[in-house]
Amino acid sequence: QSAKPVIPADDSLYQQFGGQPGLVKLMDDFMTRLLADPRMNPFFKDVNQQHVKEQLVAQFCELSGGPCKLKGPDMKKVHAGFDIDRSAFNALVEVLQQAMDAQGIPFSAQNRMLAQLAPMHRDIINVP
Ligand code: HEM
């Protein structure tokens, strides 16, 4: 009888983000920074911030190879109700980078994550 091949999931990026506790801390700080940023505050002040943080934890967990799956509407639907142009997208990424820096997440890990987020601009930017 042949052994089943064991293919270990690569969760190295998830580990570099500090696993679940690391992601929860990251998103708490990220949301605080989004609300403090005059460019981002108008987008986030009236939404269910706790829910958005939880969804972001699940999304980053999944993207980093952790044991999660983001459930919910796709990125296009989620953002359709907001006017998001390229500069707003870039501003959000800038705030995210500051939050990742503040958590001491290694630059290489930040870049691996940003590389997965970048293509989402096609679904999220909806204003020329
Ligand atoms: C790569 C970039 C982005 C990612 C990965 C991302 C991801 C997400 C996720 C996972 C949610 C929660 C969805 C849910 O409730 O099921 C969310 C919500 C939201 N995002 Fe983004 N987002 C990005 C960029 C942006 C940008 C650029 C803006 C505005 C400038 C923005 C504004 C919002 C707002 C306002 C909500 C709350 C929507 C609501 O509850 O009605 N996002 N985003």
TrEMBL record:
Heme binds at residue 79. The keyword Nucleotide-binding does not apply. The keyword Transmembrane helix does not apply. Keywords: Heme, Iron, Metal-binding, Signal, Transport. GO terms for molecular function: heme binding; metal ion binding; oxygen binding. This is Group 1 truncated hemoglobin. The lineage of its organism: Bacteria, Pseudomonadati, Pseudomonadota, Betaproteobacteria, Burkholderiales. The chain holds residues 25 to 152 of 152 of the full protein.
